[in-house]
Amino acid sequence: MGVLLFGAIVCVSVLMIPIGLPGTWVMVAAAVGYRILLPSGGIGWLTVACVGILALIGAAVDLALAGRYARKYGGSPRAGWGAVIGGLVGAFIGIPVPIVGPVLGAFVGAFVGALAMELTTGSTSGGATKAATGALVGRVIGAAVNVVIGLVMGAWLIGTAFAG
Description:
Layout: H1 2-16, H2 23-37, H3 45-72, H4 77-93, H5 101-119, H6 125-163
Helix pairs in contact: 1-2, 1-6, 2-3, 2-6, 3-4, 3-6, 4-5, 4-6, 5-6
């Protein structure tokens, strides 16, 4: 029964990731709980540590790509930081759209943050818009990478739990 509940939690967690919720971290918490509550359930501390590292990598990549793409599209380092901070603020505040609001907020926040910070450097509106577009592209790619990492984590955890 415990393995079925764990599998359901992992599946719901994977579905949380594309809508901007911390599904990877829910999976890590579920893995820790499963390991503590069912020590002979197949999930070892090494697996818990590895999925924790994967979740950390996913979060870092998701944040870093917005800044990297802002700079790749001609923006200053300041635009890169604006994209990262704007994406975080946008995800936190969200847009008043049910379920997908945090994702849309993160995308809009990355764009607006990069645009605003690039404009403060004296860049033209065209250059600032190009950098902000890069930030948006980076944020979308980062979200996609985070989804792939979440799928890997989910498959690993479910496979390990059901094998044990």
